[in-house]
Every structure is written in C-alpha cells, then in structure tokens.
Amino acid sequence: MLQRSTLPAPTPLLGIERPALFLDFDGTLVDIASNPDAISVADDLGQKLESLSRRLEGRLAVVTGRGIDNLEQFLGSRAMFRAGSHGAHVLTAEGAVLRQAQALPDEVTARLSSFARDHNLLYERKAHGGALHYRTKPELEEQVRGFANDLAQAHDLSAKSGKCVVELVWPGADKGGAVHLLMQQAEFSSCTPIFVGDDVTDDDGMAAAVEHGGFGIAVGERPSNNASYHLDTVKDVHTWLNL
C-alpha cells in the first residue's frame, strides 16, 4: 500500500475542469470524536457546503457512513446530494430518493445492542445499518470484528470496518456504489469525479472515482492504494475546498 504522506497535494480546485466532489464527513469535513455525537461542527459548515454545491452547479455530494437524518442534525437539510449509511440511502439535492435500503432485521439489531451492552461499547443504530464503536476499548477489536463478521454471515449482510468501528449493512451498500449511482445523474455528466476521504470505507469511493476518470484524495495517514493525492488534516481539506 502507498503511504499517504508520500503522495502530493492535489491541484487547486479552481484549476480542475468541471470537478465533481464526493466528500466523506467524519475525518474529512469534521474531526473524529470518541463518540459520533460528540463531533465539533461549525455552525456555518452546512451553508458553506451548499454554497460550494451551487458554485459547482450541483456537482457535490456528502457520502458518509452516518444516516442522512443524523448527518442533517449537524449540517441541516441542505440542497445538495447526500449518500448515507455507506450508500444504502441516497437523496438528490431536492430530497428525491435514489436508493433506500430496508432496516436491518430485528434479531440483528437486538444482538448488536446486547453485545454492546455486555462489553460496555457504543452501539449506534441507524435507519439502514448498525455500528459497534470500540474506540474506548481498542483491545476488543478482534473480538468485535469476529462477532460482527459471524453475525453478518449468518444473516447475509456485509460487515464494514473503519477506525475503531465495525458496521453491518446490506450487501451492495458501499461508497463506490453511491458514486456510480450519482454519476448517472444529469448534474454529474462530463465531469471529473473526486472522492475525498480518510478511512478504509472510502477506498471504494476513490476506486469508483478513478473508474469514471477522476481520482481520490486521502486525508490523514492511513495507507491506501486508491488515492492519487493527499491532504494532512480536516483543516487542509477546508482550505482546498475554499470553504
């Protein structure tokens, strides 16, 4: 894998012909916190992203593992494309549904909740998935991932691992699929897709951007094979986006 720190900084956004932005949220637009609800978000971040989307004639989407309802608690309901739950739920800028998976089976959510309670972990229930956070107990990583993988296999689900989190979602729910779907929309025609993200779940999105003639920008230090450029911090992302 390529170390992100060896990659060059991206070309200034204004120098790219018809850029289309696919932006991860946690670790990319906002710094990661110990609890998903504890993130610090500037009051005007949603407004700034909406303004950037208008300048790009709609070619901007926030692509996140969070549920869209949860994302909107921090950004507000904005006129821009949104893909939540790793692409299981995708909305247009006007709020029309492009994709919406069903909720996880009750048995799965019950077992996730019970496991989290028994091991003093944070269970994050989402409309289209469920996540176990072990940031406060990193020594349980192997046990958490093993439990999640076994549960996913038993119910024909997918287990997605990230930074101190593992999430169960329906098969096909990934950020690459969200990019492919959004690239079919009129706003994204004849553009240069750019996926910006910091975690392993963003690699699919970067790969999809490359397939459509664009590239990925990695944030932070995690190794990646799918990024062509690198930005060190969330602040650097904001600077590059001219937010």
Automatic annotation (TrEMBL):
<dbReference type="InterPro" id="IPR023214">
    <property type="entry name" value="HAD_sf"/>
</dbReference>
<protein>
    <recommendedName>
        <fullName>Trehalose 6-phosphate phosphatase</fullName>
        <ecNumber>3.1.3.12</ecNumber>
    </recommendedName>
</protein>
<keyword id="KW-0460">Magnesium</keyword>
<dbReference type="InterPro" id="IPR006379">
    <property type="entry name" value="HAD-SF_hydro_IIB"/>
</dbReference>
<dbReference type="GO" id="GO:0046872">
    <property type="term" value="F:metal ion binding"/>
</dbReference>
<comment type="function">
    <text>Removes the phosphate from trehalose 6-phosphate to produce free trehalose.</text>
</comment>
<dbReference type="Pfam" id="PF02358">
    <property type="entry name" value="Trehalose_PPase"/>
</dbReference>
<dbReference type="GO" id="GO:0005992">
    <property type="term" value="P:trehalose biosynthetic process"/>
</dbReference>
<comment type="similarity">
    <text>Belongs to the trehalose phosphatase family.</text>
</comment>
<dbReference type="GO" id="GO:0004805">
    <property type="term" value="F:trehalose-phosphatase activity"/>
</dbReference>
<keyword id="KW-0479">Metal-binding</keyword>
<dbReference type="InterPro" id="IPR003337">
    <property type="entry name" value="Trehalose_PPase"/>
</dbReference>
<comment type="pathway">
    <text>Glycan biosynthesis; trehalose biosynthesis.</text>
</comment>
<keyword id="KW-0378">Hydrolase</keyword>
<dbReference type="InterPro" id="IPR044651">
    <property type="entry name" value="OTSB-like"/>
</dbReference>
<dbReference type="InterPro" id="IPR036412">
    <property type="entry name" value="HAD-like_sf"/>
</dbReference>
